[in-house]
Inverse folding.
């Protein structure tokens, strides 16, 4: 059995809003799981239900082999890092970290040892006697981490802990969190709406949408084999291009302006005449000057990113973006596009489910 | 580095702007205070026709009067009890009201609106409630075998004055405590919930310390209230009866000065009160305020 298990958890708020519509998850010992999704999709609700700060409407939550959904938060052996740190403003850094241990009856010597060890690991030793108000944002973040670490809980929960930091500090703390989690080996659930944070931190990603799980998988899996159009659009910047198309036979797509595109033979996954979305990542498409290109593209604006360039335009009256390593200005705005046939994504038009392998 | 000193040319206009304010303070605060100080060293006849300098005689008379000393003792006891109870009751109510999920605003309104009653009006209402012939409270207490006679028994009178004073002050404290509780961040409370299982322990280690600035502010407000603002209550409820046992220092100033027409003695009492306020202010700034902030 895994370190954390959610079994068909439903959460309906008092106002009738259903924030979790039957979430099931199985998380392995020592795993770093990231919950990602747009704002309001129920990530925090899921995390807070695990923590016990929110009661669940139905379903079960197990930590290790113990059912915890009826236990108060302090009994679940969980530590949580909040977005705004939630440090106790009237206590010193030392007491902030020691508080949870004191309440669990550790001896003063034990507490001192644990707190000092954590402080050393987080480079907080010089600040132990300060109050949170006298610390910088990054230091407060580390105190919040320390407060979670000292208890050596079975599970760490993080609710967007980096979103209050500036960009460079966020990058640094992201690495630090990953390094700490690796060295401590504590099972962790991390919530974020930032896809880069999600991709870089996760052993496995859970993509949520409107209270439901869209897909679970490693960062590579979810990026290269998105199971739904939602996941396809959510991960990657710029987002994946999705072109409405109709299948002709098994190996040709007809776009809405009538142009035909050859694709690898799809065999039994699809039927002749089926409405589909053709998904192409901006970096998997390239420009060609030859007239016998596969897709007609009308260029509109370009954006310089330094390493690469973005070129935005239209294919069959649908917005379409390219990420090119090199692009020189041209006289014409009409181009042809080629793509790697192995890098195409096909989704059913109605259900949004992936249909190709 | 040489510091550059900016010199504004002096214009009399700013001083003109603060003249009205200063004039009000001078006329309504400093002048009466100085007048009281002056009168406290004088012996004046009741008609104010003649007066003579008597040095500290008024003060000597004051502090050798057992009546004044017992008023002093009563005021201290009464103020402490009123302060402790109105703070305590309000804190309990605020914590409970804050924990209610449904209909919270109704509770808050019900607990708050006593605030809007003027002290004298509250005193008159209480007078009827506690009246031996028509009031409900004596009847209620009598049914427990407590022969409640606030007009003749000084313990009963004291209990009544304290009860009404507390009742009148609780809403003020309640509102401030509730605001203080609401200002404690939700995530701090949640973090504490994960760190500490016991509700009462969490209250004393997290909630209460975070309320300390509010509580200290209210402590000062409540002592001031019990000392000065209960005048209206006492005047309508007991007028210091029975036998001066419910007379506070402020009420005695009024009694001796306006009813007894002994201006010198009354002024000496005012000066004593001023010194007490000074002391209170000093304690507030020097000692406690520093400790309750974080
Ligand atoms: N206490 C609450 N009462 C009612 N609805 C809530 C409450 N908390 C959150 N919600 C709603 O539940 C949904 C999910 O919220 P949340 O889990 O905070 O989203 P996320 O963290 O993914 O942004 C949102 O639509 C939000 O408005
Ligand atoms: Mg959230």
């Amino acid at each position: 059995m895994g370190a954390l298990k959610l079994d068909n958890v439903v959460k309906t708020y008092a106002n009738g809003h259903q924030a979790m519509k039957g979430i099931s998850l199985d998380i392995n010992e020592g795993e770093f799981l990231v919950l990602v999704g747009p704002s309001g999709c129920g990530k925090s609700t899921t995390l807070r239900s695990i923590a016990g700060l929110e009661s669940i409407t139905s379903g079960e939550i197990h930590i290790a082999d113990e059912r915890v959904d009826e236990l108060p938060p302090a009994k679940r052996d969980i530590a949580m890092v909040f977005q705004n740190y939630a440090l106790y403003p009237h206590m010193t850094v030392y007491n902030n970290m020691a508080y949870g241990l004191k309440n669990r009856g550790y001896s003063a010597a034990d507490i001192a040892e644990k707190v000092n060890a954590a402080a050393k690991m987080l480079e907080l030793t010089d600040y132990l006697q300060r109050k949170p108000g006298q610390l910088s944002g990054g230091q407060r973040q580390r105190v919040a981490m320390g407060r979670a670490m000292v208890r050596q809980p079975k599970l760490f929960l993080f609710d967007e802990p980096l979103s209050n930091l500036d960009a460079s500090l966020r990058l640094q703390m992201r690495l630090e969190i990953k390094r700490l989690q690796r060295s401590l080996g504590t099972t962790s659930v991390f919530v974020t709406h930032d896809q880069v944070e999600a991709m870089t931190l996760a052993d496995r990603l859970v993509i949520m949408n409107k209270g439901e799980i869209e897909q679970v998988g490693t960062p590579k899996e979810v990026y290269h084999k998105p199971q739904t159009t939602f996941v396809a659009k959510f991960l990657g910047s710029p987002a994946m291009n999705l072109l409405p198309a109709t299948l002709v036979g098994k190996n040709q797509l007809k776009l809405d302006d009538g142009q035909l595109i050859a694709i690898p033979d799809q065999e039994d996954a699809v039927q002749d005449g089926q409405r589909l979305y053709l998904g192409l990542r901006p970096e998997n498409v390239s420009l060609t000057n030859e007239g016998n290109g596969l897709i007609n593209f009308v260029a509109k604006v370009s954006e310089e990113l330094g390493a690469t360039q973005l070129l935005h335009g239209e294919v069959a009256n649908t917005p379409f973006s390219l990420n090119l390593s090199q692009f020189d200005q041209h006289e014409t705005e009409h181009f042809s596009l080629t793509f790697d046939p192995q890098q195409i994504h096909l989704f059913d038009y109605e259900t949004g489910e992936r249909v190709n392998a | 580095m040489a510091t550059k000193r900016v010199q504004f040319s002096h214009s009399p206009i700013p001083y003109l702007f603060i003249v009205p304010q200063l004039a009000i303070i001078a006329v309504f605060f400093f002048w009466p205070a100085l007048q009281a100080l002056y009168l406290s060293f004088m012996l004046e006849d009741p008609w104010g026709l003649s007066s003579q300098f008597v040095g500290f005689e008024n003060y000597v008379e004051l502090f050798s009067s057992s009546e004044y000393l017992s008023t002093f003792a009563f005021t201290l006891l009464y103020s402490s009890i009123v302060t402790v109870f109105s703070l305590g009751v309000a804190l309990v109510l605020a914590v409970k009201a804050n924990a209610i999920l449904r209909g919270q605003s109704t509770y808050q309104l019900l607990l708050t609106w006593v605030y809007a009653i003027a002290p004298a009006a509250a005193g008159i209402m209480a007078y009827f409630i506690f009246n031996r012939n028509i009031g409900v409270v004596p009847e209620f207490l009598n049914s427990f075998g407590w022969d409640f006679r606030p007009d003749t028994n000084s313990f009963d009178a004291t209990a009544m004055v304290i009860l009404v004073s507390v009742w009148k002050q609780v809403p003020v404290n309640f509102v401030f405590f509730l605001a203080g509780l609401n200002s404690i961040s939700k995530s701090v409370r949640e973090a504490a919930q994960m760190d500490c299982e016991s509700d009462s322990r969490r209250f004393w280690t997290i909630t209460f310390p975070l309320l300390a600035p509010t509580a200290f502010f209210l402590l000062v407000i409540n002592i001031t209230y019990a000392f000065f603002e209960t005048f209206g209550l006492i005047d309508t409820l007991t007028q210091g009866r029975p036998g001066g046992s419910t007379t506070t220092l402020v009420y005695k100033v009024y009694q001796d000065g306006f009813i007894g027409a002994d201006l010198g003695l009354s002024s000496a009492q005012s000066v004593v009160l001023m010194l007490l306020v000074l002391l209170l202010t000093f304690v507030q700034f020097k000692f406690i305020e520093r400790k309750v902030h974080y």
